[in-house]
Write a structure and sequence with these properties.
The chain is α+β, with helices and mostly antiparallel strands and 252 residues long. It has one domain. The protein has 7 helices and 11 strands. A 9-stranded antiparallel β-sheet has the order 3-4-5-6-2-7-10-9-8. Helix 3 packs antiparallel against helix 6.
């Protein structure tokens, strides 16, 4: 007698949220990483065609050498980093990945426009008609007073902290991974420290992804990842965080 097939995995289920642009945002870093089949030439050669295509928007170039130490082995890889003139945006090209990141996030429309520019610039360099993985990651930092953490972050995430169950916590971190209707997600959240102000903050780190994406459908998939990511972000906030963001100036 054959076993019954396993039921399909239940996807992430948070309420849908209409996209909005607020007077403030909580984004510490936004990154879109596009992985492609390894092109070993990028380890040894300068990507001259790509450099020429992006140099007006990203004129500052650095060669970044990464060293990975594993038991019994030492691996070194090169990455080409192209930065905007004011340094708020960075494009990185590796042998198996292309990424766009910013610490000066303003809106998804702006991010998507820059990503489209980078995709077009990379067409003649990556020598692939698909990406093995498309990932969109947002790292958000929520300011909070310890006694009001349940007002800043969804109580479903922080009730033990707000109720004092763990006492004066030095470290609190959780990682959740699962499927979505588009692909998959990894959600990490917990206590952090503002590197400039030195005060405590609550980190909401969302990484949504889809594997095996053709080049023409990439931007569409990124939009879908963003919509799901934003819905989870909205669900994760408490009332005080929503007040902190200010009134919405744009709705779709």
């Amino acid at each position: 007698m054959m076993d019954a097939p396993a039921p399909p995995a239940k996807p992430l289920n948070v309420p849908r949220a209409d996209a909005a642009r607020f007077s403030k945002n909580l984004i510490r870093l936004a990154v879109c990483e596009l992985r492609f089949p390894t092109l070993f030439e990028l380890e040894a050669e300068r990507p001259l065609e790509f450099n020429k295509a992006v140099r007006k928007e990203y004129p500052l170039h650095d060669l970044v050498k990464n060293v990975n130490v594993n038991p019994g082995s030492l691996a070194q890889s090169n990455a080409h980093s192209f930065r905007s003139k004011k340094g708020g945006w960075t494009v990185t090209l590796r042998a198996a990945a292309l990424s766009l990141e910013t610490s000066s996030y303003d809106s998804f429309a702006q991010f998507e426009k820059r990503l489209g520019f980078v995709l077009k610039a990379a067409e003649g360099t990556i020598d692939s008609d698909f990406f093995t993985r498309v990932g969109l990651r947002y790292i958000n930092a929520v300011p909070f007073a310890p006694s009001e953490v349940k007002q800043w972050v969804n109580p479903a995430l922080v009730s033990p902290l707000g109720e004092g169950t763990f006492g004066d916590v030095e470290e609190h971190w959780q990682r959740v991974r699962g499927p979505t209707t588009v692909g998959g997600y990894c959600f990490q959240h917990g206590l952090g420290t503002d590197p400039q102000a030195g005060r405590r903050e609550y980190i909401l780190d969302f990484d949504f992804y889809r594997e095996d994406v053709t080049i023409p459908e990439t931007l569409s998939i990124v939009r879908q990842l963003h919509d799901q990511e934003y819905a989870m972000f909205a669900w994760s906030l408490g009332d005080k965080a929503k007040e902190h963001l200010g009134p919405s100036t744009l709705k779709k």
